[in-house]
TrEMBL record:
Biological classification of the source: Bacteria, Pseudomonadati, Pseudomonadota, Alphaproteobacteria, Hyphomicrobiales
GO molecular function: glutathione transferase activity
Domain GST C-terminal: 166-290
Site positions for Lowers pKa of active site Cys: 247, 290
GO cellular component: cytoplasm
Ligand binding (glutathione): 96, 124-127, 142-143
Name of this chain's protein: Glutathione-dependent reductase
InterPro entries: Glutathione-S-Trfase_C-like, Glutathione-S-Trfase_C_sf, Glutathione_S-Trfase, Glutathione_S-Trfase_N, GST_Omega-like_C, GST_Omega/GSH, Thioredoxin-like_sf
Pfam family, any one: GST_N_2
PROSITE patterns: GST_CTER
Signal peptide per UniProt: none
Active-site annotation: 63, 189
SUPFAM superfamilies linked to this entry: GST C-terminal domain-like, Thioredoxin-like
Species of provenance: Roseibium aquae
Amino acid sequence: MGVLVDGEWKDTWYDTKSSGGRFVRKESAFRNWMTPDGAAGPSGEGGFGAEAGRYHLYVSYACPWAHRTLIFRKLKGLEDLIGVSSVTPLMLENGWTFASPDPVNGADYVWQLYVKADPTYSGRATVPILWDTKRQTIVSNESSEIIRMFNSAFDSLTGSAVDFYPPDLRTEIQQVNEIIYHSVNNGVYKSGFATTQEAYEEAVADVFNTLDMLEDRLSHQRYLVGNRLTEADWRLFTTLIRFDAVYVCHFKCNIRRIQDYPHLSAYMRELYQVGGVAETVDMDAIKTHYYGSHATINPTGIVPAGPALDLIRPHHRDRIAKAA
Ligand SMILES: N[C@@H](CCC(=O)N[C@@H](CS)C(=O)NCC(=O)O)C(=O)O
């Protein structure tokens, strides 16, 4: 695990000393948008028009943020239009590492892609990255924005009609996202990376207060927002699917398991069972990454054997829709 300082790689762990033992996530740096005609998006600069074969996605199957982009690539029919390269599960002294030089840039490490895009880049070398092969740069390294681009930029090329960010639900989706991002998606990291008891207790309480609230919400509605699957559901899903296998034990989020929540667990299974989604879930990569990459949390690197998860059991979520 490391960080780039003026384009140079330094092997160092997160600094939590200046924040009272609290893990504080940094903002993503590359914020351009792919759009149907190359017009500028809500941030960054224009010139990134949707074209088949032009863009490449770098991911880790272990990473919940990258996982969102893999799900959208799959569900929006973008697999033939946007290539993907994945790193190996362990993130050690060189950060994210490719098993062999990546076919687009010949990189051995993800940090080299950041330096190629910006030779004086300072910051973390995170996945996902959306790379533009034409301008030889990073379009975006912010998953929440990459999934919005995937949701609509290529629709005229793919003919996809599914919309995970429909205009009539946007306000509510954003409200739900905001809560889930801070308390659940990033909440588990705040719990796991805390280095004081107080910071941990604060974070773990927030995780479970929010899961309790979501359990209640999903007891009377099938999906988080409206009566259909939206990006809010996919953003929650990538944290839920890692929860019992990793966050309960490795990040000490052990007040309850997702399995202990009847509605949340059935909801998670429904999403897992959506066509194509199971192929984006690599539980071995997930477990190997977390337990093996964070030596400050798990010095032996031993990967726990369990838990046994039955993700293909019937979910019966259609009953909730009928009751509502
Ligand atoms: N805000 C970013 C966060 C991405 C992120 O933190 N990815 C993690 C993997 S789960 C990473 O690459 N970490 C490497 C590091 O922090 O050095 C996003 O959502 O795209």
